[in-house]
Design brief:
The chain is an alpha/beta fold. The protein contains nine helices and seven strands; from the N terminus they run E-H-E-H-E-H-E-H-E-H-H-E-H-H-H-E. It has a single domain, classed as Rossmann fold, CATH 3.40.50. Helices cover 45% and strands 14% of the residues. The N and C termini lie far apart (46 Å). Belongs to the short-chain dehydrogenases/reductases (SDR) family. One of its GO terms (molecular function) is quinone binding.
């Protein structure tokens, strides 16, 4: 078996689309033996995950796929994911904690329910699945594994975007404010969680790292980036002159999951096309 993840069992939350989907495909491409793919469980994500399962098993005959539905904000979902994964494959070698939401809202008028749901999915859900998988990694033989939390460039910078007046006005006119002051703290929390888990879990041969994507074109921001002025602005801010694609994150995730990164833990890996370093 060739690739960076030969015979590994990889668990990915929020795997039906976007970054999670790309990580699933690349994990199979890199030799993963088993994939535990979590999805929300509604009609749309169920169709997506079944299509993904069929694609992986067709393209990579050596890979087997187990799919697990559920709301990641419910701690019972994480228990179910681990139980299903162990029943199917006997162990879990890699966790990609990816499930997340970003319902854009302006800070001063944001309903508390929006804050609570965003925190519950992004941060609480990450804690639940990391804790559940870490306990499995501790108990299995051989002991250990790699945990990757999908954080964001938003862990490092604020999320109340400032635009030139005509652009800002156009956003308001279209009633699509690109505000994420509730999202950014959850992504900072995921980065902090990975740093603390690196310390808490290192003695069990479990590594914990974070990837921090920049602006990646996915369903989570599809409507927001449909504004041509904003999209062009974000493209212009990146050193590489383009928005990211989910596949751009999958490669760094596989690296952190692999033995190439066997001495990497507690690290934030910024994958943003040069957005963060561009002051102007």
């Amino acid at each position: 078996m060739s690739g960076l993840l030969p015979n590994k069992v990889v668990c990915i939350t929020g795997a039906s689309r976007g970054i999670g989907r790309a990580c699933a495909v690349e994990s199979a491409n890199q030799g993963a033996l088993g994939l535990i793919l979590h999805y929300l469980g509604d009609k749309e994500t169920q169709a997506e995950i079944q299509a993904l399962k069929e694609e992986i098993e067709t393209r990579y005959p050596n890979a087997r796929v187990a799919v697990v539905p559920g709301d990641i904000a419910d701690p019972a979902t994480s228990t179910t994911i681990v139980e299903a994964g162990v029943a199917a494959f006997g162990r879990i070698d890699v966790l990609v904690s990816n499930a997340g939401i970003c319902p854009f809202a302006e800070f001063l008028t944001m309903p508390h329910a929006t804050w609570q749901r965003t925190r519950a999915v992004n941060l609480d859900g990450s804690f639940y699945i990391v804790q559940a998988v870490a306990n499995q990694m501790k108990s299995q033989t051989p002991q250990g594994g790699s945990i990757i939390g999908v954080s964001s460039i938003s862990a490092l910078v604020g999320g109340e975007f400032q635009w030139h007046v005509p652009f800002q006005t156009s956003l308001r006119t279209k009633n699509r404010p690109a505000f994420s002051s509730h999202y950014t703290p959850t992504k900072a929390g995921i980065l902090s969680l990975m740093q603390s888990c690196a310390l808490a879990l290192g003695k069990y041969n479990i590594r914990a790292n974070a990837v921090l994507p920049g602006t990646i074109a996915t369903d989570i921001n599809k409507e927001d980036l449909s504004n041509t002025a904003k999209r062009d602005y974000m493209v212009g801010r990146t050193a590489l002159g383009r928005l990211g694609a989910p596949e751009d994150i999958a490669g760094p995730v596989v690296f952190l999951a692999s033995d190439l990164a066997k001495y990497v833990t507690g690290a934030p890996l910024l994958v943003d096309g040069g957005l963060f370093v561009n002051l102007q």
